[in-house]
Write a structure and sequence with these properties.
This protein is mainly alpha-helical and 248 residues long. It has three domains: 54 residues, no CATH class; 38 residues, no CATH class; 127 residues, no CATH class. The chain contains ten helices and no strands. About 3% of the residues have low confidence.
């Protein structure tokens, strides 16, 4: 209905089924800058919020009965593999290489899921930036108060959204994606500072997300150990990450 930028902001603001006054001000400011009629925009926003709340309350319907799947064509994409594209042998689910000819299954879109994750996190962070840039003095005061309150009560709304994005993001399924995820997540899953310096501003923001990154790394490592149990070399890399993060 609107352009992609404001649609993304609306989506991020309504992600948890709530719309704070600060978020509303940010959205209205953006809409006004784009020449959108504010009365119309408010009606659309209220309707979107209502739809989001309804969707969150209604349980998902049972999935339809799947129809028989057609024979899978040869493919070099791990997610589509039914038979090895090299020797034609049947492949077990979650395998990253053929047990008969050792052909490695790769994904031509490797790392795309990781890029999508960080794009979502950046979009969530954009909401914080826009809130701080608002010209409304009351909103600015509210933002400062929110920052102080978050120091007492825990992560603010934007940080909670980012944590939810990380926690709910699907676990990678290809070897490339798993290794790429762990390499990027490793420094984010390790605390900075010590007992005396962990609460310093430069460390506190980082440490807020350590637990959620660590939990996601553990999920990826568990999945990798299962799917790559026959890939000794890759398994060694996975276990090295696990050792660094003290994951058994």
């Amino acid at each position: 209905m609107y352009n992609e930028q404001i649609e993304k902001l609306i989506e991020m603001a309504l992600m948890d089924g709530e719309l704070t006054e600060k978020e509303k001000q940010v959205l209205f400011k953006k809409a006004e800058a784009m020449g959108i009629d504010l009365d119309e925009f408010e009606m659309v926003l209220d309707a979107r919020l209502f739809e989001k709340k309804q969707a969150m309350q209604v349980s998902a319907p049972p999935p339809p009965t799947p129809s028989p799947a057609p024979a899978a064509p040869k493919s070099d994409k791990y997610g589509d593999v039914k038979k090895c594209p090299s020797c034609g042998a049947m492949v077990e689910s979650f395998k990253t290489s053929c047990g008969y000819c050792n052909h490695a299954f790769t994904n031509v879109d490797a790392n795309s899921s990781i890029e999508r994750l960080f794009k979502m996190l950046n979009e969530a962070e954009d909401m914080r930036v826009m809130e701080k840039q608002t010209d409304n003095p009351f909103s600015a005061i509210g933002g400062a108060f929110s920052d102080v309150l978050s120091d007492i009560s825990g992560p603010g709304k934007v940080d909670r959204k980012k944590m939810a994005i990380i926690s709910n993001f699907p676990i990678p399924t290809t070897k490339e994606d798993m290794l790429e995820f762990l390499s990027l997540a490793l420094p984010r899953a390790q605390k900075k500072g010590n007992f005396f310096t962990a609460e310093k501003p430069e460390n506190k923001v980082h440490n807020t997300f350590v637990n959620v990154w660590h939990a996601k790394c553990e999920q990826v490592i568990m999945k990798a150990r299962f799917s790559m149990k026959d890939d000794k070399k890759t398994l060694e890399e996975i276990n090295q990450y696990a050792s660094t993060l003290k994951i058994k």
